[in-house]
Amino acid sequence: MKYNLTHNCLDAKAKASGWSKEKLIDVVNLILSLVGTGKLDWDIGAGEDWARILGEKETIAFIRVDFPLAIVREAYATTLRAALEKTGVVSIFVPDFERRLYELSMSELGNIFPRWHTEVEIIDPQNFSIDELWYATI
Q: Over the stretch 62-73, which tens digit does the pLDDT of each residue have?
């Protein structure tokens, strides 16, 4: 089964004007407090466009810097869904970050992620993993 992320990404992109790095940090701190473990991995000085929340053994979530989008491991949905909804962040809970289960509309790719920096032959926007999305758009 493929999960098309286009609609959710466009919804989050439409909310970009109300998003800030301060709000991102608030969301990161909220997630860390609710999960009870983990750390922030984000090189703000390098201009990274994603903040990652790393757990002890796996990435818990990716949060977009320039618009309010969180991609979260489904295992944390019960803990995080209601709290993230209250923040206004568009949250996508996914079963897996490693398998190629996801796609984006080719016609909207440049609008959503103008800095997609890999060739489509390397990372196919119609067949990618969340880890590959992070790499292609960081």
A: 999 999 999 999
The type of residue at 48 is E
**Separation CA 119–CA 136 (nearest Å):** 9
b/e per residue 33-47 (b: at least 16 CB within 10 A): eebeebebebeeeee
Full DSSP string of the chain: --EE-HHHHHHHHHTGGG--HHHHHHHHHHHHHHH---EEE--GGGT-SEEEEE-SSSEEEEEESSS-EEEEEGGGHHHHHHHHHHHT-EEEEES-SSS--EE--TTTHHHH-TT--S-TTTSBTTBB-HHHHHHHH-
Alpha carbons 83 and 78: distance in angstroms, whole number = 10
Residues in the chain: 138
- Tokens coding 45: 């000085």
Q: Would the pTM of this model clear 0.90, i.e. be above it?
A: yes
Beta partners for residue 91, in sequence order: 70
